[in-house]
Amino acid sequence: MRVRYKPKLLPKDRLVVTGPVDKAGWNYSPLLGPLQRARFSLVHQLIEGRKYGTILEVGYGSGVFLPDLAARCDTLLGVDVHPHPKEVTAALAAEGVSAHLYSASAEALPLESDSVDLIVSISVLEYVSDKAAAARELHRVLRKGGRLALVQPLSHWWLNAGLRVLTGENAAQYGKGREQLVPSMLELFSIVRRTRFPAWLPKALCVYEAVLLEVR
Q1: pTM for the whole structure
Q2: DSSP letter, residue 102
Q3: Contact 210, 151 (CB under 8 A)
Q4: Residue 114 in contact with residue 143, Cβ under 8 Å?
Q5: Is the dihedral of CA 210, 147, 12, 172 positive or negative?
Q6: Number of domains, the chain
Q7: What is the pLDDT of residues 163-194, one digit of tens each?
């Protein structure tokens, strides 16, 4: 009997408010929670329960998904542009999770080359203005055969309208970032696997796209 995946998340009362784009609390909303947590299920599908030496989450926010990633690796790293790595580290430590967190951008990662086995980034890189620079940095820090798991919302008029109605957020903040993200990676990475949520619907009716890429 197949066991349904349930992500191990940082409890709601441990979440640190790191900025206006960090919506980690939505994971615990009766209405938005199932959609938010679907992104973690997509990561789980992409990496197939494998264990890694070092995992880096780019855009870890309040660290809500880091407890789940910690169980999948020996060393856990996180990078985000917000200035609260110490507060998030403390919140994780209170739950028994050890992580090395940094305040930096995806275009300038404070990590050694060839030092990471898997990078996970969820609903983050579409915000990055220089995606080519980000791709070069992600490629630089990954080891040979390293992989990059990306999850992002798809861009549909009905999805954008629903976002505004449910949350007041304006999808115009993404610009063309959603459409540009995966193509911007393909000069340095090859696609290993691609999936969507819900997987049984045509792309025009799906909410998220998930892509696993590998270093060329």
Answers
A1: 0.91
A2: E
A3: yes
A4: yes
A5: negative
A6: 1
A7: 444 445 555 555 567 788 999 999 999 999 99
Edge-to-edge order in the sheet of strand 73-80: 100-103, 73-80, 52-58, 116-122, 142-153, 208-215, 189-197
**DSSP 3-state of 164:** helix
* Domain-located, residue 7: no
Of the chain, the percentage scoring pLDDT greater than 70 comes to 88
User: Which tokens in the block code for residue 166?
Assistant: 């449910």
The answer for residues whose C-beta is within 8 angstroms of residue 73's C-beta and 6 or more apart is 51, 52, 53, 54, 55, 117, 118
User: CA 33 → CA 28, 36, 103, 207, distances in Å?
Assistant: 5, 5, 27, 14
E-only strand ranges, the chain: 52-58, 73-80, 100-103, 116-122, 142-153, 189-197, 208-215
Instruction: Report if residue 134 sits inside a domain.
Output: yes
Residue type, 33: G
Cis peptide bond upstream of 183, omega within 30: no
**What CATH number has the domain bearing residue 92?**
3.40.50.150
The answer to whether residue 29 is domain-embedded is no
